[in-house]
Amino acid sequence: MRAVAFDIFGGELDVRELPDPSPAPHGAVIRVEATGLCRSDWHGWQGHDPDIKVLPHVPGHELAGVVEAVGSDVRGWLPGARVTVPFVCACGSCPSCVTGDQQVCERQTQPGFTHWGSFAEYVAIDHADVNLIAIPEDMDYATAAGLGCRFATAFRAVAQVGEVRPGEWVAVHGCGGVGLSAVMIATAAGARVVAVDISTDALHLAERAGATHFVNGSAGDVAAQVRELTRGGAHVSIDALGSPQTCAASVESLRRKGRHVQVGLLPGGPTPVPMARVIGHELRLLGSHGMAAHAYPPMLEMIRAGILHPDQLVTRTIGLADAGKALASIGSVPGVTMITPRAPL
Question: Which of 269, 287, 305 is the last residue of a domain?
Answer without folding.
Answer: 287
